[in-house]
Protein 1
Amino acid sequence: MSKITDSNYRVGDLMKIYENRWKYLFFTLMNTIIFLSGNVLNKKLNGYKVYPSDISFSLVFGVLYGLILAHLIISFFDQQKETEELDFEVQASLHQLEAFNEELLAQNDELESFAHIISNKEKELREIINLSPIHIYLKDLEGKYLLCNKAHAEFIGEPIQGIEGKSQGEFSVFEKGKIDDYQLVDEKIISGNETNEYIEKINNGEIDQYFKINKIPVELTHHSKEILVVAQEITDLVNMQNEIDLKNKKLLEDNEELIRLNNETNRLANDFEKIIRLITGVIDDVSDEEYLKNIFALTLNLMSRSKKGIIYLFDQGIFKLVQAEGVHKSVADAYLKSYAPDLSVGKNEVRYIENKGSEAFNKFLCIGFYYGEKQIGGMSLESTLESKIFTEEDIRLFKSIGILVNNYYMNRKILEVQQTIQNSIIISLVKMLELFDEYTKGHSESVADLSMKLASEMGVKDTSAAYWAGMVHDIGKILVDRKILNKKGGLTFEEYENIKMHPYWGYQVLNRSEELKDIAKYVLYHHERYDGMGYPEGLVGEEIPLISQIITVVDSFHTMRSRRAYKEPMTIKETIHELKDQKGRQFSPMVVDVFINKILVQEEILEINEIQ
Ligand SMILES: [Fe+2]
């Protein structure tokens, strides 16, 4: 409390007097009257003379004593009042204190029961935490355990009570060298106030254990920073992951091996397919040169030791280059010119020639190609590997390729002979037919010739099939009664039905031969009509094979233009008119158009201005 100054006191005193002015006045007045009356009356009664000084004296003392008395009385009452007020305040404070005390007591009770609850809850919490297989513990910044659960205690190998209060460094389960690292991590977490998660490997002397550790900065017990650690053992997971990684790696390796094997298999299959195609000679319509180029590519593919080589044909006494690989054409040509005698290699033999060619081409294997007993070409390969020496396997393989080519030519020769025989048979059959059917004379050759030309014009690949089908289209007539065939008058229904069998019979004759099967089909349908009204099957439009459509047009054209015993030949104009008239009915419109616009013009049967 601050001290009250004198001036304050005086001011306060005056204020007090001012507040009690009426009381002062009253007591002063009363005293003055008492003094005055007492003094004056006493003198009067005792017979003394009353002097003015007596009245003045009485007035002065009356006022003075009145003031003193008033002050004393007022002070007394004020004191009394202050005491009462103070007493009242003290009483009030006491009440307040009591109430506060009661409140404190109540709060204390509440705190006690709360503490009890907390104590129970902490117990429960500890039990729950202890049930957890996850390690949970609380450390202070010095690394001392403040709390620790059962899982972690078991890991350390001590009871919980023996752990709390001690630092991690005191337990042998932790590697000594790592304790400082833990400390550094903890300090970092506290300073950054951030949770940290990492995986820790702990080796307990026998096995590696892995833990996923979460460190969380907290303030739980001592109002200072602490680290709550939640560590989950993930050893099984890590081991499983390692096992999966290992299997994955193995799978990837296996996969790579499979891809490699697959590529190798594909390459071999590809080569094998090529070999098969080359052996069987089923490369469609390839020329000898194309065939040799295929063989050359295959050889370079199969003989991996060599990337250099040439393949050549013997033509009019000299070797001519077909293809070169890894060697400039001029070097190859010079080689073929200079070393021709060396290239005459025996049938199914391999010759090794050394230091004969140029610098770029001087150690090589040679084979010869034979048509019958005559060498018609060959192939030379140079080893490009450092050893420059071919293995036995290379030589055997190269020899096999030579045999393969020779077989190809042998097959070609056989086919040519077969074709000649086959053609002779067909021509003989046609001649036989001409003996039976006098109207057929020359007709077959003409139909064959025009059919082939028309087929070529229409983009048919196998024009020889069109030729031979045209040649034999009426071969079935051999089986028709000769009298019906050469009958001059009109035919009966039965006779016509008999003649209508000739496409089918022709088909039956030709279909027995493997080589003539396709031709047989064209013959079968040469009397079909584009509108589906023909025979034997009533095929419609493009259902009819194109070669059959062609033969129909050419056959009809030639018949219309031929003289018969029963009819004169139609003029070219009449024939064209008829062909056009039957477009889309008997004939394919497109075949008729090409026949009129191209073939008849080419053959000079028709002038361009006659087409219209
Ligand atoms: Fe016919």
Note: Residues 132-233 form a domain with the Beta-Lactamase fold (CATH 3.30.450.20).
Protein 2
Amino acid sequence: MLLRITALVFAALLPRGAQGETPPMTDEKSCCTATSSRATLFAAATLTGDVASANEVKGAAKEALGASAETWPAKPWLDRMVWIPAGEFWMGSDEPEFGDARPWHRVYMDGFWMDKTEVTNEQFEKFVQATGYITIAERKPTKEEFPTAPEESLVAGSVVFTPPNEAVPLDDYFRWWGYLKGANWRHPTGPASDLKDKEKHPVVHIAYGDALAYCKWAGKRLPTEAEFEFAARGGLEREPYVWGSNEFKPAGKWMANTFQGHFPDKNTGEDSFVGTAPVGSFPLNGYGLYDMAGNVWEWCSDWYRPDYYQTLADAGGVARNPQGPVDSVDPSEPGAKKRVHKGGSYLCTDQYCKRYMPGGRGKGEPDTGTNHVGFRTVITQSERGKEPGASGQSGR
Ligand SMILES: [Ca+2]
Ligand SMILES: [Ca+2]
């Protein structure tokens, strides 16, 4: 919070280009991990949402993996969710740029249910209509939160990617990230934008607390980082992509919504999407999940520390259902407390950070959503019963 307050004063709420002073940059590539904070800047057709759809997914997952069809728990199944069977996997990455994802370490996960897709705008709308919830981006920042910010700067908004008009050095993400008054989940790229024809796009500008509020309403929770990566890998071991292949475009096919062209100034949208895509626009992974790579980053419940994997590896043996460290440290922004993001987004590119790879890690301060961060939910069998309509027909 202290850093948030300090940095906000200089940059966050001022117009782009008038920041005056920016936080120290590091060599860490932050294009698609987003600026981590407000502070520093101040299906598709298959989504029928019924059990028949779950059967389709089950079949697809079986086909993809050659796995047993009997790995799902007894019915009732959960609407719009797929079962991730218990198992062990190698977690991490040896990508040279992913220093915080080393070393590979062995992890055991209990089975759990996971949303087949990112939470969509129409799902979030149901939550808001039912509860009257107002997201953090829609709330006016208070003098108590930012005591040294000028009153005129205290306006509701969020962090939005705005491509520069020309190629720029990649050493300062302020060149493409800015705090925009009036940006929020209903207005993803600012007040003039809306959700028309975006009902099945992932909801964005979701801060960690917003995601928790949705989870509470739905009777679910956010995945741990290990749950997310285990599910993203789809039963495959130490593969570079969630679809397994060493090829980014196997047989010439786009497998995830990422960034093509020249980052950050020219997104050519060769995969058909310059921004978010309707959930489920790209192929399923081995467990029948969509968009576990790309489209939008997704909140996990773990605190972020770059040394957490080393801590687990040093402990030896197999980590069982790891819940993340007890606190957060991010050397690139000392003092900021961050939660983990996973999966990468439509802004991830091999020219810069390629964190659509399943071992990649992102992070962000809990009060900060951007227009490429969303979430999905999970629940274990033993946790079931909390969700409304536990028979699986809630439609949430
Ligand atoms: Ca794209
Ligand atoms: Ca995603």
Note: Residues 257-259, 269, 271, 273, 346 surround calcium ion (ligand 1) (CB under 6 Å).
